[in-house]
Amino acid sequence: MKASTQPHPSIPLQQRLRDLRYDVPASLVVFLVAVPLSLGIAVASGAPVVAGLIAAVLGGIVVGFLGGAPLQVSGPAAGLTVIVAELIDTFGWGVTCLITVAAGLLQILFGVSRLARVALAISPAVVHGMLAGVGLTIVASQLHVVLGGSAGSSFVDNLSDLPTQIAGLHGEATLLGLGVIALLIIWPRLPRRVRAIPGPLIAIGAATAIAVFTGSDAPRVELPGSILSSLSLPVLPDGRWSAFAVGVITIALVASVETLASAVATDGMHTGRRANLDRELIGQGTANTISGAIGGLPITGVIVRSTTNINAGARTRTSAILHGVWVLVFSALLFSVIELVPLAALAGLLVHVGAKLINLGHLRRLRRHGELLVYLVTVAAVVVLNLLEGVLIGLTLTAAITLYRVMISSVRAEQVDASTWRLPVHGRLSFLSIPRLAHELGRVPAGSDVVIELVTDYLDHAAYEHLHGWIDRHRAAGGSVHVDEIGSAGLDSTLRGGGDLRSQLRRREASARSTPLPRWFTPWSFWQRLERPAEPTALDPLPPDRHADESLAVVLNGFREYQLRSKELVRPHLAGLAMGQRPRAMWITCGDSRVVPNVLTSSGPGDLFTVRNIGNLIPPPHSEADTSVASAIEFAVGRLEVPVLVVCGHSGCGAMQAVHEQAIDDGPLHSWLHPAASTRARWQAGDPIARRAAADGYSEVDQLAMINVDQGLRTLRSYDLVADAVATGRLHLVGLFFDIGSGDLLLLDDPAAGFESVGSHPTQPMRVAPDASAG
């Protein structure tokens, strides 16, 4: 269930009272989840049990009032259990409280300095690895308590001692702990009405009731006489200030990262006010300062409690505040009840919580993104060393891999035939790539023909000089080198330009700025480095220097480019289309080489059923002059059932120029253009489309082209098949005009108003049906 908008302080009291109808029940649900978790985390940390309850109270009330994430719930977190346990072993509980106070002050400094978002730059692989490492450590230690024993001092010790512990089971305690784990595992599979009660509360309550009624001698939670006597003040350390400082920084950083990650995740679960991350850190720091000062555990934002809060219907921060109040009331009035809880039951709860920190879904996603190594190394370092060192090792590995990906290119010399070598270079070519580049270039024999495929978007000075020098030496030794620049690094243009290195570098940078399109969108004349002839007008003859042999070579290069580079990109899509097609639209347009439907629609294989002819004309139905267009319409609308049919004209159309000038002699072209007579008649009569186009500065030929689009739509409606599909809502007709000079697309929505710009609105995200999402 998603929460509604977070109320602003200026919202009337009546609205706040309405919100309480949702916040109060949600706060009770979160309270019932928080109490057993807080007790279990305190026991697992080796801290006084009441320290967990203190942290839960302050996390609810203080962070609820001061924090910046309205629906996030804070309290003691399992992610800090291992760190706190290590600090208590090293310094004792009193000094650990002082560390919590100092860490809270440091968090306030983070928030005041507006550094909250910096923590979000930490790789998710490190964060997930840290949580998984903590989860493994908790499971390994608390399994010993479930089995009736006591946890060791490290993960390795706990893991190695586990077989011995299993061999010497302590019956009653073991049954209680395993029963809690079993109940928590099956709880999500029970009916929804049953699951309305929090599983941890039922598990701990049932285990406690069984232990009391059976008179079990399983170890219980030990408490002092009252909650007030459990409060403790911080203590100064007796030396070891450097280790103390490391502890402060560790608690502050880990608590901040966990809080901010939880706040960002929580933001995605509701539609209310977004989190103010800096304010959230100030609230967390204030709560930690107070918690440490009176003997509480460190506090963070907790995703489990926050998710429970939102799913229970919370509307405002009042829910989190009230949950802290309920924990306080429970601690004051039902303090003695806590002593009835078996330690094995709390340990079973923590085993379940720790196991949930190991999310296998993260493994699959990180593997797809190439970050699984960082995750595994972080997990191993956390469980073998400690949490801080594990996180630092994970961050260092992340930085090293990022540097490698950014600065290291893929270079491989391949022999094509006896005298030709190919050297594809992918990535960013920098000084770090020179050793690899030099090795591969050294494999190329002197005097051979070499094609260097530079698929790069960055080429630094050192790599440029090395490659440039090798090319000069290879050419001087009788070989040939052709630089095929697929990326935007610009090496080829500088080599052809000559001049000193500084001018070459300037030309290289200019070339990089002038190649915004990938090769599959770029004209042959650009990426094949052809000398571009003077542009002909629509009916001028071709320039005499366009020889057939040269043009054939250009076309074959296009074939090879697809086979070499584009085929593997589109092959997965083509494989799904091998058995048939279901295009989204039929596209009727002119055969003009400047009009490329897939470019204009940002589409690919399987999207458009395209029909091209001279002037994008649509003959009347039952026309005997030409049946190709009619048969295509019958096939697309009748068989393929396309839901959209687009007629697209364009500026500078040679066919429309011929219609305008009536300069075509008898022959096939004259016969084909005969239906356009009605278009010309409309233009001569001052059609509204022509008047609007003239007012916008379009030429008479372009005015004809626009009227011709509308005339095509009218003709389409005279086809019975099209008319029936339009009438039943199965087909939409769309008129479009492509202004070649500006690159603009104009849409014909209302013929009386003429063509209007398609606009530059952001791409609209599409929601697909569940059965189609798998594809």
From TrEMBL:
Main localization of the protein described in the UniProt heading: membrane
Ranges for domain SLC26A/SulP transporter: 20-377
Record membrane topology: Multi-pass membrane protein
Cofactor requirements of the protein: Zn(2+)
Membrane-spanning residues: 24-43, 50-71, 91-113, 125-147, 167-187, 199-221, 241-265, 324-351, 372-404
Enzyme Commission number(s) from the entry: 4.2.1.1
Protein known as: carbonic anhydrase
